Amino acid sequence: MDWNAGAGREIAVIVPCLNEAAAIGQVVRDFKAALPGATVYVYDNMSTDDTMAVARAAGAVVRQVGHRGKGNVVRRMFADIDADIYIMVDGDATYDAGAAPAMVRRLIDDNLDMVVGTRVDDDPEAYRKGHRFGNWLLTTLVTRLFGRTFTDMLTGYRVFSRRFVKAFPSLSGGFEIETEITVHTLELRLATAEMPTRYSARPVGSQSKLSTYRDGFRILKLILRLLMLEKPLALFGGFAAFFALLAVAFFVPVLVDYLSTGLVPRFPTLIVSVGVMLLSVLSLMTGIIQDNVTRGRQELKRLFYLAAGERADERTARLITDRPRLTRAG
User: Fold this and answer.
1) Would you call 50 exposed, middle or buried from its count of C-beta atoms within 10 A (0-12, 13-18, 19+)?
2) Ranges for the Glycosyltransferase 2-like domain (predicted)?
3) What secondary structure letter does DSSP report for 161?
4) Per-residue pLDDT tens for 48-58?
5) Exposure of 244 in the CB half-sphere (CA atoms within 13 A)
6) CATH code for residues 11-230
7) pLDDT digits 0-9 by tens, 119-138
């Protein structure tokens, strides 16, 4: 085990959880043992069991988030916690804390923004078939829409740089947060890597909060929304092509009749054809305008990303140091 991983850097292990009293103590103890210098933060999402008490007894810094949903908890953690390296992991004791030092070392050595812990399981109880199929389906869809992605897009085990965390504009409320993180990474073409990690079954008494169909549908809606926001020209260009083909299909019989008789007996069909072609033009123009807006937003996100690496205490020290110089300049 690499006990010196992240030496000289402040590491925060951030754990979003809900009703994980049966597992959270083990999670906190395992990560404190794997990374003795790290601070473990447990953000409880209004649990009705003893999650907070168990986490606090195990040595974690415990806080509570009132808005239900994993995305809301992650957004609060990213805003509150100031560190150099962030390790996000679920509180269900299914992920291998022993892999954390190697993931941190990979992040540092390769100067990455995110290292993803891909799940490798040898227990059929660890990864339900419905969840496995849904993960494959959604990962494949994101790959087709946004380009190269990860083999395990929905894993809850990730290591982030400070720059990534402080520049990530999280909007998701629930389990679709992992999808939003993935698309944000692809959009800005950030440096990332994957590392296989052991994935185990939940401890006795711990139950999954993920609904295969409900949360899968929410993730699918997010993917479609992100497609409209991040790839508008492709989306509206597809609509434009569809409407153009439909308009041509309506127009061809009208043209054949006109060439044969010199008359236009299907005048309503001609009107429909022109209307549909106008929809095609409007769709294309919408895509072009939205694409320019998207490019401007991406440039702003890139600038925020570049500016997000400096710690708050470093900014304060720099401002104090520069104040006499600025005073003299004034």
Assistant:
1) middle
2) 13-166
3) E
4) 999 999 999 99
5) 11
6) 3.90.550.10
7) 887 665 555 555 666 667 77
